[in-house]
Amino acid sequence: MKNGLLFLLCLIAPYLVDGQTPYEVEMKLESLADVGEDEAANLTQLAEQYQHIREHKININTADKSMLNEIPCLNAFQVHNILQYRKRYGAIRHPYELNAIHTIDLNTAKTLTDYVYFGKSEAKKIPWRKMFDYGKHNIITRWDRVIQEREGFQRRRQKASGENDVGSYYVGDPNRYVFRHRFSFSRHLQFGITAEKDPGEKWRSSGLGFDFVSSHISLSNIGSLKRLVVGDFQAQFGQGLALWSSLAFNKSAMTLNSKRYGRGLLPSSGVNENRYYRGVGATIDCGLVDATLFFSRKHVDASFSNDVEGTFSGLQQSGLHRTPSERASRKALGISSVGGNLHFSGSNLSIGATVIANKFDAPLVPPPQLYRANQFSGTNRHNISVDYQWLLRGVQVYGEAAVNERRGFASANGVYVNVNKHLIFNLHHRNIAPTYDALFMAPFSESQASGSGERGTYLGIQWNHRNGITSNAYADHYQFRWLRFRASAPTTGSDYVWQTVFPINTSTSTYSRMRYQQRDINAEDTEMIRSLSTERRLSVRQHLSHKMDDHWELASRIEYTNHQHRHQTKNGWLLYQEIRYRLPQHRMIFTMRYALFDTDDYDARIYAYEHDVLYAFSIPAYFNRGTRFYVVYKWQFSDRASVWLRYAHTRFHQAESIGSGLNRISGNRMDDVRLQLRIVL
Amino acid sequence: MFLLFTHLISSSGNLNQRIIFKSLSAAISFFYNIDNECVGCHLTKMTNYCQAITSSPISLSTFMKTRLYNREVLCACFWALILFVNNGLFAQHDAFSRSMGNSTTAISNQYSIFNNPAASVFNTANNAVTATEMRHMLQKIAFHQAGVGIQNAKQAFGAAILHTGFTAYRYSRLSIHYGMLLNENMSVAIRLNGHNVLEPDMLGNGYAITPDASLLYQLNQVVSIGIVVDNFLGIHHPFDSEPLEQRMAIGGAWQMSNNVLLSCDIEKPMSHSISFGAGIQWSIMESVYIRTGLRQTPMINALGVGYQTHTTHIDASVSYIPLLGATPSISLTHSW
Where among A125, A140, A166 does a domain terminate? Predict the structure, then answer.
């Protein structure tokens, strides 16, 4: 079964052009938000990857296993069955024929037609000298800012007017700029550049002036050269225990996504300023075995240690360089990395081995806090892992075992059982020693924090009822064998989700979702001796979506959340109504939402996915009491150019300020404006 | 507002009257689940004081029988009921809505000009509507409402007026709305409300204009969804720095058969708890309807009857809140 990223891409696929996102994706993104809103930025890369696949369709009759694996909406069972079908009955000549393939239902067949064509032979190859005639340039420029002035910018003005005692402040202006350029030619060549300046960051005097600039050149499928990447790239191997630099989803209402599907080396096109490699990497196709080797050298943001001179206390993940102290940490630590992977791929069995070695220019020494006792310390960091995948009829077994330089051991193993066309089970077990961690790891787990020693078992079920109703559920029990942030003792927890989607008719569907989580955390962080207390969170959601006709779509949602900790109960409510209008002949899409929320505090917050401009994603947390309104307008004013405008207004009830610290805004209103232009040549 | 409270408490006659007033205020705060921080704090103090003096809350009927109340006490009740309680200024006051547990957000009929102007677009005739209710049997807390809806095939215009009050306090609201069909199954409407509060003895005359937006869409021939957002710009009260109540309501209606109509509704005023309501209408014979509804926070039980001729509807209802008592209302509509 393919992992959540690819499935997400598949779902996003038909909607990227007009900016619409189906509710399955919303669910996924909202669950992602529970982990961290910053991760939403990484979706940009996923979206682009999808777009590339969609613009260069695959011939389903000549594609080999690895090419079919790239199609996001297909799982391993389906890929296997397509190959078996072709072997037995010959070429697939029409989309309707897909329905005859076991495990491919009508929805999958419909989606698949966005990725494949049904040719008898490979499309005529275009010579390289015509690369620029047939290639496509994709240019995006984006500007956005919050209208109200934050505290950090006020202090900047005070500083500029001669006041010295203003404390920390933002050094740059409040505008955010993003520039992206991609050129792609067939499925063989891609190069591009991404540049970004965050609010509060200063324009740089060197380069393009942006605070973050990323570029890459990628060659693919040329003879035995499967991939060559020069510049910034991502690496995804195994189950994410040893080497997985990009985004990976965890638990969500889409309950069959515990398996990671590594795509090897990929060009990095996101705006995450830390999770990528910079250098050169290549994958060579040696028949049944793919060999990958890469080298990277880059500087990352790191905090200087206050205790030991010349050392660093930790790596920073925010990518923000707004204040003098943040700027001091900018690219402070150099990392050299070399890694490789060997991957054998048979018809039913795949086995891989991964090695990664990282060397820091200066030692990392975590602060002397007990919960950080198992975190990495030193300059050399190594990981070795072995992964496997075995598919037999309706059963798929997969896993990875990894060890690091401290002999910390980690494993992740799982099985999918396709009982019949209607019922699929997914069992996943992970066991990560407290002493195990890696520079870039993203296993399917409760926490991505290193050094906590997570062990847990996850059971997911998807049941497709005969009348079109789909039920998903999972139960996850886990324990941390070492301390964590806000947990001063080993702890346990559990997480349950149930969701049922009811298609009322072809244009209307509704889903009900309930999630219950409980985990142990410190009862009171300020006490000298900290005892544990169980934190419980319950959320219940009812969502209705209705497609009125070719122009109008509506969505209504009611969500309730309940948070309990130390005999304190906090509740939260969210109601929203969304309207979308599209005018195809005028190439215009208009989306509007009004939400009213009321939560007792941040603990009872509610996340809701919001539509945004292309390649941007917004999943704000609704908390306290207030209203939020946003409107997104897209106008494709020519075949080659589109413009997006987004305005969001949040008003908190009876609030004197919004946010805290340098992000504080005086007053109870916040307005956010975003403008984007896209040109395709 | 608190000035008024302070004034009332200090001037409301003898100790017994003050005790009764505090008991009533405490009861109101309890039954209406007031959670406005300031008001809640104020009333909590009164509740504590009240509990220290009286061992049990006093019922409104008992209170009325004592004949100890005076104008100020009634005024205080009025303030508590109208400005603090759930559904205060935005409550549905016609007999039809009352009898359906105020869950008529998604119902399209003559009363839609009050409750959801977008739903009125689906009406097939012009309407004139009057409604009056005597809240908790107190004449000084009576609401009078009248409106007219004019429409063509795809658009609807309307105007309505609401009035309540007595010598020391008067509140009037004039509303005009415009609605239109976006397609055959969906309509939207915008409503502008002009609020006028008159307190000759205290704060004088105050005005405010608030906009409302509403939407109605039909999932199929028998199920519809309605949404109403009141005061979506958060306009402030003329005498207060606080906004006039913002409210969002999402409701559904299901014409279960020719004789049975079901409705439900979820309503979230900004300053108060979320509230659920449901109602059912049953046509027991041609032109005669009986209705019943429930509303939570505060708990309201309602019963109603309706009779219709070719052009005229008469509806009557009684809604009941424990402790505060019954509220009768009657409405009359004419269609042409």
Answer: A125
Q: What is the DSSP string of A137-155?
A: EEEEEEEEEESSPBHHHHH
Last residue of a domain, one of A163, A198, A219: A219
Residues of B in contact with A552 (CB under 8 A): 182-183, 186
- Interface residues of B toward A, Cβ cutoff 8 Å, are 37, 182-183, 185-186, 213, 215, 217, 219-220, 225, 227, 229, 232, 234, 242-243, 246-248, 250, 266, 268, 270-271, 274
* CB-closest option in B219, B227, B229 to A508: B219
pLDDT at A30: 59
pLDDT at A395 over 80: yes
Taking 80 as the threshold, does the pLDDT of residue A479 lie above it? yes
Yes or no: say if B45 and B101 are a contact pair by the CB < 8 Å rule.
no
Compute the nearest-CA separation of A665 from chain B (Å).
19
pLDDT in tens, B158-176: 999 988 877 777 888 899 9
Intervals of chain B under pLDDT 50: 1-20, 22-23, 30-60, 63-72, 75, 79-90
Nearest CB among A505, A544, A596 relative to B270 is that of A596
Contacts of A577 in chain B (CB under 8 A): 215, 227, 229, 248, 250
Of A505, A554, A575, the CB nearest to B217: A554
Report whether B106 contacts B116 (CB < 8 A).
yes
CB B214, CB B188: distance < 8 Å = yes
Q: Where do the domains of chain B lie, and which CATH numbers do they carry?
A: 2-84 (no CATH), 95-335 (2.40.160.60)
Contact status of A651 with chain B (Cβ, < 8 Å)? yes
Q: How far apart are CA A73 and CA A65, in angstroms?
A: 14
Q: What is the CATH number of the domain that holds A83?
A: 1.10.150.310
- Domain-located, residue A546: no
Per-residue confidence (pLDDT) for residue A647, from 0 to 100: 97
ipTM score here?
0.76
Residue A170 lies in a domain: yes
Predicted confidence at residue A21, as pLDDT, reads 47
State the pLDDT at residue B31.
45
Q: Which of A556, A598, A653 sits opposite B225 (nearest CB)?
A: A556
Name residues whose C-beta falls within 8 Å of residue A541's C-beta, 6 or more positions apart in sequence: A511, A512, A513, A514, A557, A558, A559, A560
Residues A110 and A63 reside in one and the same domain:
yes
Residue A152 and residue A117 share a domain = no
Q: Which chain B residue has its CA at the smallest distance from A577's CA?
A: B227
Nearest CA in chain B to A579: B215
CA–CA separation, A332 vs A323, rounded Å? 15
Residues A209 and A154 in one domain: yes
Selected residues 127-156 of chain A with any CB under 8 Å from a CB in chain B: none
Q: Do B270 and A598 touch (CB under 8 A)?
A: yes
How far apart CA A198 and CA A664 sit, in angstroms, is 17
List of chain B residues whose C-beta atoms are within 8 Å of the C-beta of residue A573: 268, 274
Residue A110 DSSP SS3: helix
Q: Which of B185, B242, B266 sits opposite A575 (nearest CB)?
A: B266
Instruction: Kindly state the tokens that stand for A461.
Output: 């079920």
Cα angle for residues B45, B46, B47 (degrees, 5° grid): 90
Distance from the Cα of A573 to chain B's closest Cα (Å) equals 8
Number of domains in chain A: 2
What is the pLDDT confidence band of residue A569, given thresholds at 50, 70 and 90?
Answer: very high
> Using CA atoms, how far apart are residues A270 and A250, in angstroms rounded to an integer?
19
Residue A84 confidence (pLDDT): 86
Tell me the chain A residues in contact with residue B243 when contact means C-beta distances shorter than 8 Å: 653
A459 within a domain of the structure (yes/no): no
CB-side neighbour CA atoms (13 Å) of B171: 22
Q: What's the domain range around A70?
A: 58-125
Domain membership of residue A646 (yes or no) is: no
